């Protein structure tokens, strides 16, 4: 039986831009009532629709997340979309623990807190509620200079795996979404620190961009069709499969075929290692 998403009440994080904004556009067409949580005040204010409630909150700060939960206390939602997230680029020795932890707070702990609240009191409990969770291909294979992002996404993926089974007793479906490389501002907003920032050495990604609107439509269709996993086939998925079977091949490909090779050689030339 298909899930009827029409007129549902939805809580989404990171909904003022990118994939989150495209999802809101699709959900508005389904006559849904949406609570959008985001840290960008200007973009949040640009969401002009009577069915959208806007809450300013920086999920890097767990005190603000606690305040968010108090703000929505007593509300009952049919769907929670854990979408917010961002990426840090840095050598481990050059990133502060605060920045590392802030990355975890946004990408992992805030979503754990929202999921816990949803299970405890925010779920409508109509017998068919859902939690949608955005992970990343890097949750399956981490890459150099992205330790905080990759490990936070891997933690979130494993959390979802546990919840998908555990939450069945509450009739809550847990869905894992692995987006492709989307044509959003995500990559422009990567925060670089230390040597990578000084020398302008971003970790490039040669994958082609995928239309964000198209993927948002696929997510909505996946929700309606009660999918447990929503993803798009690409060469990255082949690499992840090879890496799973033969991790030494994965290491070799990252060492020799990725931007890490250039970064490593530059570090040696500048006597940074």
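^ Assign residues to that structure.
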């Amino acid at each position: 039986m298909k899930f009827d998403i029409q007129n549902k009440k939805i809580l989404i994080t990171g909904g003022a831009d990118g994939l989150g904004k495209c999802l809101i556009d699709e959900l508005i067409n389904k006559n849904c009532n949406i609570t959008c949580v985001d840290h960008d005040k200007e973009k949040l204010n640009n969401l002009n629709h009577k069915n959208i409630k806007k809450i300013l909150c920086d999920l890097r700060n767990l005190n603000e997340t606690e305040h968010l939960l108090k703000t929505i206390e007593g509300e009952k939602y049919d769907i929670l979309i854990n979408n917010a997230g961002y990426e840090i680029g840095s050598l481990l020795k050059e990133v502060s623990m605060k920045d590392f932890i802030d990355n975890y707070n946004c990408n992992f702990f805030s979503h754990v807190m929202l999921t816990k609240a949803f299970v405890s009191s925010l779920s409508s409990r109509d017998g068919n509620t859902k939690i949608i969770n955005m992970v990343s291909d890097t949750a399956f294979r981490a890459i150099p200079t992205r330790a905080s992002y990759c490990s936070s996404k891997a933690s979130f993926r494993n959390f979802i795996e546990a919840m998908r089974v555990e939450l069945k007793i509450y009739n809550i479906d847990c869905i894992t979404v692995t987006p492709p490389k989307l044509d959003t501002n995500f990559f422009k907003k990567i925060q670089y620190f230390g040597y990578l920032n000084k020398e302008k050495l971003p970790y490039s990604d040669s994958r082609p961009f995928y239309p964000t609107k198209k993927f948002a439509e696929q997510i909505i269709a996946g929700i309606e069709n009660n999918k447990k996993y929503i993803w798009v086939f690409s060469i990255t998925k082949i690499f992840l499969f090879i890496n799973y079977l033969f991790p030494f091949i994965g290491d070799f490909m990252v060492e020799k075929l990725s931007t890490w090779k250039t970064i490593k050689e530059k570090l040696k030339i500048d006597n940074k290692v």
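The longest helix spans residues 97-122.
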